[in-house]
Amino acid sequence: MSNLNPTIERVTQRIIERSKPSRKGYLDLMQREADRRPERSAVSCSVLAHAFAGALEDQDALKDNRGPNIGIVTAYNDMLSAHQPYGRYPDRMKIYAREVGATAQVAGGTPAMCDGVTQGEDGMELSLFSRDNIAMATGVALSHQMYDGAAFLGICDKIVPGLLMGALRFGHLPAIFVPSGPMPSGISNKQKQETRQKYASGEVGRDALLESELASYHSPGTCTFFGTANSNQMMMEMMGLHVPGSAFVQPGTKLRQALDRAAVHRLAELSGTTERTLAQVIDEKAIVNAVIGLLATGGSTNHAIHIPAMARAAGIIIDWSDMAELSSAVPLLARVYPNGSGDVNQFHAAGGMGYVISELLDAGLAHGDILTVWEDGLDAYRAEPVWEEDTLQWNRVEASKDDTMLRPASAPFQDDGGMKLLTGNLGRACFKSSAVAKERYTITARARVFQTQEAVKEAFQNGELDRDVVVVVRFQGPRANGMPELHGLTPSLGVLQDKGFRVALVTDGRMSGASGKVPAAIHCSPEAYGGGPLSLLEDGDEITVCAATGTLSTSADLSARTPAPDPVQEWGVGRELFRMMQVHADEAEKGASAMLVAAGL
Questions:
Q1: Helices 303-313 and 228-238 sit at what angle, rounded to 10 degrees?
Q2: For residue 471, which phi and psi values (nearest 5 degrees)?
Q3: Do the beta carbons of residue 290 and residue 325 sit within 8 Å?
Q4: Distance from CA of residue 172 to its chain's centroid?
Q5: What does the alpha-carbon distance between residue 439 and residue 432 come to, in Å, rounded to a whole number?
Q6: pLDDT of 109-164, one tens digit each?
Q7: Can you tell me the distance from the alpha carbon of 364 to that of 3, in angstroms, rounded to the nearest whole number?
Q8: Are 113 and 201 a contacting pair, CB within 8 Å?
Q9: Where is the Dihydroxy-acid/6-phosphogluconate dehydratase N-terminal domain (predicted)?
Q10: How far apart are CA 429 and CA 102, in angstroms?
Q11: Residue 214, pLDDT above cutoff 80
Q12: pLDDT mean over 495-505
């Protein structure tokens, strides 16, 4: 691509060079898998009988090997509003497959937990490692080797990364990800945020808070703020794994159904061929595009963990230094709540991904020459899908319809992508600056050290934090307790900031796609568990968190201190079942995965 930004070109080439041995090993494996994949006509009749016994409507077609057979891996359940629409998808997808001479079977299901439901609860400690579990469940689903292509039904936080990590180990097959879309907009995000802060301050009660939350999360579909779930869908577009423009089309519409049909028809066309296999589509440039999309839209900080893990599953090595350098070159083109006032429905109506991708390509800020599931190059993803005259069509997105939400690369909201790498004597951490006012990029204050978020909330209620303070919440990393999100701290810290105090958070835990206006150094590595730097801190230590200089440090002399003791591991809510994954997990910057470590990836 002749006009590609030199920083993006340099970082991409560095990733390619660094990844050469592991990428070659991955591609060699995929070629061997393609070569040894059994032809169904050569498989024993007993095996085939087991595979086809339940497919009564398609049994004759499968028996006669008339066309490609698509495996559906679904993360359906009713607990996730985003995944509730998937309940009816398999039956419809089987019909769509028959329309083009193919068949489809549900290959398997994967777990899918809702971080919104487990937020602040013990179950959240299972969340990150559910990603490894989902990847393994995907492997189980596809291990039957009865499929010529695969469709993946998943949207939310750890689910899409887990599906992709598992799918990439079957990268010799074509694959398409099929979203179901966001719920309609509820009350404004500003109203929701105000009620949460009033509840944290004791100004309103639980009844008012519950009514506010129900007015926001109210129907089937993805939550409408730009958190990890919607960042997932954005990245699937940037990597070319969706039917173009399908990320943010609402459930239950004719357009949504037409896009789902198009996905199955396209997958049937590709299935059984060596064109556009998943291993070919997901290369170094596609991974860089995912990072670029994350930066340009102000997406979820969780992807500082998920992108390295997904990349490793394809033999690609990327780290936070790469992501921070890309951030220096990629401007912020979108402000979507919690980085702005509008939600993803308003983002989509303003031009959405079609506009973002068009601006990035025209400015030389994304790899346009990637191989997508739709066609060669990312150009098709500049368009917005529409349903007109009973036909699925795409219209080129030429301009932003709301410049408070979407701006051109020539006049962005800010010149960088808002993902900073902080380093210093407290380790390495991520800082999402896109939602933080510049006057709060640097916070120097005395520390107050906690080991649970409940203790932080109690101190807040008691007025103990009413001062300039750096709140340290440690022993929240992958090996300590599964690295739960600490999103529940946002209202309390926001109240302190609104009172005029200079406040920052430092943690080896996660803050999620809902990271907001309070400066936060998150994913600190090494984590406190096992003697990391955060385990040496004490109340009163002066700490500097600075996005401007990329600094995370303390002026305290840590050399003579003894680490705080590692916490006792808690049991209950199934946490003990995941202890194996915690023990063997690597650091957040590598993806915080036990599965990838055990696989030698």
A1: 40
A2: -85, 120
A3: no
A4: 23
A5: 14
A6: 999 999 888 888 899 999 999 999 999 999 999 999 999 999 999 999 999 999 99
A7: 5
A8: no
A9: 68-378
A10: 48
A11: no
A12: 95
Query: What DSSP letter does each residue of 552-597 carry, written as one string?
Result: EEESS--TTPPPPPPPPPP-STTGGGGHHHHHH---GGGT--HHHH
- The two three-digit tokens of residue 32, written as one number: 């061997």
Alpha helices in 298-333 (DSSP H): 303-313, 320-329
- The per-residue pLDDT for range 425-478, each reduced to its tens digit, is 999 999 988 878 999 999 999 999 999 999 999 999 999 999 999 999 999 999
Cβ neighbour number for residue 197 with a 10 Å cutoff: 17
Q: Give the 3-state secondary structure of residue 423.
A: strand
Reduced to 3 states (helix: H, G, I; strand: E, B; else coil), residue 72 is strand
Whether residue 1 is predicted with pLDDT greater than 70 in this model: the reply is no
pLDDT at position 93 over 80 = yes
Which phi and psi angles does 113 have, rounded to 5°? -105, 150
Amino acid at 414: Q
Alpha carbon of 247 to those of 128, 219, 443, 478: distances in Å? 23, 18, 37, 30
Binding residues for [4Fe-4S] cluster: 156, 223
Q: Are 422 and 321 in contact (CB under 8 A)?
A: no
Specify the pTM.
0.94
Q: Tell me, rounded to whole angstroms, the distance of Cα 179 from its chain centroid.
A: 13
Report the C-alpha gap between 305 and 589 in whole angstroms: 6
Rounded CA-CA distance 490/484 in Å is 14
CB–CB of 342/253 below 8 Å?
no
Please report the beta strands in 425-549, taking only residues with DSSP state E, as ranges in sequence order: 427-432, 442-450, 469-473, 503-507, 520-525, 542-546
Find out whether the peptide bond into 567 is cis, omega within 30 degrees of 0. no
Q: What are phi and psi of 335, to 5 degrees?
A: -125, 105
- Residue 454 is predicted with a pLDDT of 93
CA 333/CA 411 separation, integer angstroms: 8
Separation CA 71–CA 52 (nearest Å): 13
**Assigned token pair, 290:** 């995912």
Question: How many CB atoms are located within 10 Å of the residue 361 CB?
Answer: 21
CA 561 to chain centre: 37
Binding-site residue numbers are 156, 223
- Torsion region of 227: left, alpha or beta (phi above 0 gives left; psi -120 to 50 gives alpha): beta
Q: What's the distance, Cα to Cα, between the start and end of the chain in Å?
A: 30
192 band by pLDDT with thresholds 50, 70 and 90: confident
R_g of the chain computed on alpha carbons? 24
- Which of 62, 157, 163 has the alpha carbon at shortest distance from 104? 62
Report the alpha-carbon distance of residue 339 to residue 405 in Å, rounded: 10
Look at residue 456 and give its three-state secondary structure. Answer: helix
Tell me: the pLDDT tens digits for 285-332? Answer: 999 999 999 999 999 999 999 999 999 999 999 999 999 999 999 999
Backbone phi and psi for residue 428, each to the nearest 5 degrees, phi listed first? -115, 140
Please, what's the largest Cα pairwise distance for the chain? 75
Across the beta sheet with 149-153, what order do the strands follow?
103-109, 69-74, 149-153, 175-177
Q: Give the chain's domains with CATH numbers.
A: 6-36+67-184+219-396 (no CATH), 419-567 (3.50.30.80)
